[in-house]
Specification:
Layout: H1 3-6, H2 13-31, H3 68-73, H4 99-105, E1 109-114, E2 119-123, H5 125-131, H6 140-143, H7 145-149, H8 153-162, E3 166-172, E4 179-188, H9 193-202, E5 215-223, H10 225-252, E6 264-270, E7 280-289, E8 292-300, H11 304-322, H12 328-342, E9 348-356, E10 361-367, E11 373-375, E12 381-383, E13 388-389, E14 402-405, E15 410-415, H13 427-439, H14 445-455, E16 466-473, E17 485-491, H15 497-511, H16 516-536, E18 541-547, E19 551-558, H17 578-585, E20 588-593, E21 599-606
Parallel strand pairs: 10-13
Antiparallel strand pairs: 1-2, 1-5, 3-4, 4-5, 6-16, 7-8, 8-9, 9-10, 10-14, 11-12, 11-15, 15-16, 17-18, 18-19, 19-21, 20-21
Length: 610
Amino acid sequence: MNFTRWSARFPGTQRRAAARTEHAAAQTKRGEGAVPAARGGPAPGTERSTPASDGHPADPTVRGTGSATGAASGAGTGSAPPPRPGSSAPVPSLDELSVREVLGRLPSLVALVHGPEHRIAYVNDAYTAGFGARTPGAPAHEGLPELGELGLLPLLDQVQRSGKSRTAKNRTAPGGGSSYTVTCTPVEFPKPESESERENGSGSGNESGSDPHHTGVLIHLADVTDHAEAVERLRASERRQREAAVTLQRSLLPQELEQPDDLRVAATYQPGGTEAAVGGDWYDVITLGAGRTALVIGDVMGRGVRAAAVMGQLRTAVRAYARLDLPPHEVLQLLDGLAAEIDASQIATCVYAVHDPNEGLLAYASAGHLPILVRDEDGTVRRAADPTGPPLGTGGWLHTSGTIALGPGSTAVLYTDGLVERRGEDIDEGVAALERALSGAQGTPAVICDRLMRALGVDADHDDDVAVMVLQQPARTGTDAELFHNAGLELHGGIEAAPRARAFAQGVLASWRFPIELCDLGVLAASELVANSLQHGTPPMRLRLRRTDRRLIVEVTDGDDHLPRRRRAEPADETGRGISIIATIASSWGSRRTPGGGKAVWCEFALPDK
C-alpha cells in the first residue's frame, strides 16, 4: 500500500501540517525588522557577516571547543558565536589558560600528590599560607603531616586504588583549629615519551592509569570553619532547648508519689535520647479519700516545650476533676473539652482509673490509650478490655467506664506507647512482649519498673519518651493483716436505726483496740452520718467501718444521689449541723455518687503515731 498517498488522510496529519505552516509564518514575521537571537543561526532570508581585522568577513563556521563562551552559550554544535560589532576580541579558550595560575589564585587550599607514596607535586599559595611551605617530592606522611592529622592518608590510598573521587566533610584540625571539607580527585600524569614507546612496542596492553607511579590525587580543602561553628551553635541551641523541655517536663511531674494505704505505687519517666525531642508523657497518683485512689497516665501527641506545657495543664485539670470524685468516664469527658480549648492542634491519650479496696476493683476509662495490664498472684497476665474511646481533644464522643479485678497480690501496669512501640513492628507485638516481661517480674513496684524498662530495651538512647507506673495490692498476712479490717451493717429505716448504728460502731471500734478518745469520735461520726442519711436519704442504707495502718474510715451509703454540703446553721435552726460537726471532728470528709444511683458520705480520722 502506498502510505505516502494515504498519509494525508490519517487522523491528525492535517492538523500537524497546518501547525507547521503557521509556525513557519510566525518565524518569518518575527524575522522582519528584528535582531536574531545571539546564539541562533542567521534569520531566515538574511546573511550575517562580521567584519574581521583584515577586512574580510569572518568564517561563520569557526568553532570554540572548550572555550568559556561556547560553554556559556549552551549550543549543541559547540561553535562560538562571533563577537558583536564593536565588541572586544573573543575570549581565549580554557586550553590557553595556565593551570598553575588558576590553582594558585584559588582561595581554597589545593595540593597535588602522585605515586604510591603520595609525593608532593604541587601546593598552591593558599595551602602555603595555611600550613607553611612544602618540599616538592616529599612523601605525604612526612611533607604533609596535616593530612595525617585530618585522617586523610587512608582516603588518598582509597582514591588512588578505586579511581573515584571521595569527599570527607567537616574534618577539624587538631587543637580546635579550622574545619575543612576535603575532596580528593584522582588524576593521571602523562608518561615520559620513551616509556610510552616501550609499552607500545611491547604490546602489553596495560593502561597508563593502572600504574600507580603515573597516578596522583588532587586534594582540595575548603575552609568550612564558619559553617561548622554555625552548626555547633545550632546544636548547642537545640541542646539548651531540649534541656529546658526536660526540666519543664520533670518539674511538672509529681516530685513524690502519694502512697495510698492499700496500694504500693512506683513510677518512672525516661525522656527520649539526645536525637529525639521531649514529648508530653505524664502520670499521677491522687488519693480520693475513704481508701480510694485515682491513678492517671497520659501522653500528649507532640514534642518540645509546647507539649510539656499542654501536659502540665492537663495534669492540673485531672487533679481538680479528681477532687469531684466523679466516675472515670466523666473525668475524661471533662478533659476532652478542656484539651480542645487548650490547643485544638494537639491531642492526647489518657487512662484514668480509680481503685476501691472495698470492692477489689480497678474502674477505668481510656481515651485512645494502651490497655492496662494486670498480673495476678499466680503469674497470669490479663489485659483490660474495652471500652476505649478516641484521644482527648477530638470531641463528639461519650466515654464509658470499665472494671478489672485487682485482688490481693495483684500487680497492675500503666504505660505510654514509648515502652512498646517500635518502628517496623506492630504495636500489639510490643504489648505482647510487655505481657511476657510482666509475667516473670517480681519484687517491689520500683524494681518491676526497672525490669520492664530493661526487658523492653529502653535506655538513654531510646527514640521516644517513656512513662511507666506500677501498682500492687499487697497480700497481707500475720501482724500486717491485723492492721486492716472491714466491718459493715445494713440499716433499715425507723427510729431504731441510729441506736443500732451507735452500738455497732462502739463494739467494732473497741474490738480494734482504738483509744477511748478515737472510739468516741468514731461513734459520734457514725451517729451523725446515719442520722443525715435517715433524714435526707432513701433505702437501702449501709454503715461501713474500715481501718488501715494509718486511718479510720467511717462511710454511710444510701439510695439518694443528692450530695450533702456544709452550711452555716442559724441558732434557731433544728437541723443543718451534722456535716459541720463531721468537718470539725474528722481529719477530712467528702461525698460521691455511687454507680447504682445513690451516694456515699464518708469521713476519716488519722490514727495516732505509735
